[in-house]
Amino acid sequence: MVNYNPKVWFSLIFHAYSRGVMRTLTPAIIFMTIYSAGVCYLLLDVLRFHESDFHTTISMHSLLGIVLGLFLVFRTNSSYDRWWEGRKLWGSMVNNTRNLAHKLNAFLEANDPNRKWFAMMIPNFVIAVKEHLRKGAKLSELEIVDDNFMKSLKNVRHVPNRISSMMYLRINELYKQNKLTGDQLFLVDKELKEFSDILGACERIKNTPIPYNYSMYIKQFIFIYLITLPMAFVTTSGYLTVPIVMLVTFVLLSVELIAEEIEDPFGRDINDLPTDELSEKISDNVKEIIVVNEVPA
Questions:
Q1: Fewest CB atoms within 10 Å of the CB: 124, 250, 258, 297?
Q2: What local confidence, expressed as pLDDT, does residue 19 receive?
Q3: Nearest Cα to 105, choosing from 285, 293, 282?
Q4: Contact status, residue 174 vs residue 180, Cβ threshold 8 Å
Q5: Contact between residue 192 and residue 164 where contact means Cβ atoms under 8 Å apart
Q6: End-to-end CA distance of the chain
Q7: One-letter-per-residue 3-state SS of 106-172
Q8: Are 203 and 133 in contact (CB under 8 A)?
Q9: Cα separation of 260 and 265, whole Å?
Q10: Whether 142 and 174 share a structural domain
Q11: How many domains does the chain contain in total?
């Protein structure tokens, strides 16, 4: 995710991210430039049309532009809602990991080896969720908690579920060993359940894209609008039609590109959620709460 100062206009206008967008849009802009120049050359130089012969009007495109603008606003708002909901879910993940760490720190004895086990397993769950949402399986990022840990994850298709199940089993063992009371078990269960709820909500965003028909028709509308745009300006603006079409192409396609980028907030795009940084923050916080405080003052 890009960190920036929204009050510095000059740096935002010439930010490097704009060059990245231009690299993505360059093929479409080049095509529209050549196409617009070809239309201008055909009508003005070859067929020698003038405004009296071929009367053009922007009225149709003005009306279509209003409708297209409404579609694009709804498109970007829908994508941003997905991005913001994902951010709120990961904010809940940060809070719940801290709450679970605080409770385990208070409930377990200072020299209990389970403290260190949970100090590694809670961040492992977060890392597994992060990679699962990216359709990855980087088990190398997980901390080795014991000799059987990696073996238990071998050939597992849903690593976060397995790690969550392992934490549930360990909590149940602590209850059977009378290291946790029934009330304490109930309090810890609340946080573990919340982990599954957060994971499920993130999976819902990941696995439910914007409806295909909606995305398809917006792209078709943009294409039709742009491909007919030179006709509206050619006899009145001449070869100035080319930069006009280039500017409109850049604006419309940029908005659609922004929506495409943020509708899946869990990837590695520049504006996706900073799940790597959040995972590191959770790991540091949990270890500080549980491990640093394992010896009472």
A1: 297
A2: 61
A3: 293
A4: yes
A5: yes
A6: 40
A7: HHCCCCCCHHHHHHHHHHHHHHHHHHHHCCCCCHHHCCCCCCCHHHHHCCCCCHHHHHHHHHHHHHH
A8: yes
A9: 10
A10: yes
A11: 2
**pLDDT tens, 177-191?**
999 999 999 999 999
Structure tokens at 50: 């003038």
In a shared domain, residues 31 and 62 = yes
- Altogether, the residues listed in the chain come to a count of 297
Using one digit for the tens of pLDDT, what is the confidence trace for 29-66?
Answer: 999 999 999 998 988 888 776 655 556 667 778 888 88
Whether residues 198 and 153 share a domain: the answer is yes
In 3-state terms, what secondary structure has residue 2? coil
The residue segments making up the domain with residue 199 are 84-208+275-294
pTM reported for the whole predicted model: 0.84
Structure token digits, residue 4: 């920036």
For residues 34 and 181, membership in a common domain is answered with: no
- Looking at the structure, tell me whether residues 44 and 178 fall in a common domain: no
The answer to whether 144 and 123 have CB atoms below 8 angstroms apart is no
